[in-house]
User: Which sequence fits this backbone?
């Protein structure tokens, strides 16, 4: 085995730990980086250096940004809607932002309750959520439609009951562009029950 | 859109240019890097810095390594077999090394002849190959079994005809573990013609 020195081997091993890349695709990626050294490898190295220094977690909502409070929490227009969207993960926050859900604020839980994985209420940013709640008129629980997600949603609803803030959840139904015969029964029956008039 | 500052956005865009990663998986990868800052992001940043400085192309064979001549070209035991394996790409060299083909040397062409893509003989390291040829007793053309690969193999055979070195190519046949009814007709007829006695 001579894959070109320990520096290259180590780079492959580190890239292989990224989600979506395995050892084989990490090797391809490293070769691509080496081929495009000036156009890709050098800028990527510099961008990573900058990100290592700059990235921090927002102390208010848990988003990642280069400042804390993050761009969303420090934008005064986002306070006007009175809407706080609770998500499991920063990836979900970014997905909602990409969907253009409007001038809202977020709260990143950092996971969902999962007794089997040893994740209890104290591991999530629930106290912070309860403390923030009175600033908002409505809290939308945008947790995943999994068993753990729904358990977490119920737990949060109980915790927020005392605050008097309205708590809602995302609608269940047929995904836009989705075909009915590929959908599971749970989604279909929920979509039928929540049918809307045309 | 507020994906957390220009540093994060730039990192996503650069990672999305790696083969096997698109914008969506690059975003997931960046979030993973941020979550595992100390275990993954910092080491990856350091490994990239080191690789940018260290990686070079071997001036003899075209392999990538941290020294030139590379580890393979400077290993005297690899001269004994007298075998030179010609490959299109460094990825192919690595694949053969992983397969443990033995103490051989390599020559990386840097591509295949492809008039449609504007790749002519002058774009490949063919003069270097002809110059190296007399040092070896046999040259194996391990180019891909594509039309371009086979055209390139014929061209190289012509170029090497004057050197008197024996030129061979990889065997065609049924891949180990392969099932006959998934194979194309070309492979099957080649495999039948090149059948060996048990």
Assistant:
């Amino acid at each position: 085995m001579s894959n070109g020195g320990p520096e290259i081997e180590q780079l492959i091993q580190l890239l292989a730990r990224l989600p979506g890349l395995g050892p084989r695709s990490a090797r391809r990626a490293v070769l691509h980086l080496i081929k495009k050294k000036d156009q890709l490898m050098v800028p990527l190295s510099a961008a990573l250096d900058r990100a290592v220094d700059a990235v921090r977690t927002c102390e208010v909502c848990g988003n990642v940004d280069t400042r804390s409070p993050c761009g969303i929490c420090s934008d005064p227009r986002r306070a006007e809607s009175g809407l706080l969207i609770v998500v499991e993960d920063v990836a979900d926050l970014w997905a909602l932002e990409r969907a253009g859900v409007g001038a809202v604020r977020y709260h990143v839980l950092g996971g969902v309750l999962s007794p089997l994985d040893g994740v209890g209420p104290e591991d999530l940013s629930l106290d912070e959520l309860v403390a923030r709640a009175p600033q908002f008129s409505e809290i939308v629980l945008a947790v995943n439609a999994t068993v753990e997600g729904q358990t977490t949603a119920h737990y949060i609803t109980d915790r927020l009951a005392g605050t008097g803030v309205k708590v809602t959840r995302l609608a269940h139904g047929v995904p836009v562009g989705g075909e009915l015969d590929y959908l599971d029964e749970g989604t279909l029956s929920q979509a039928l029950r929540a049918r809307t008039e045309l």
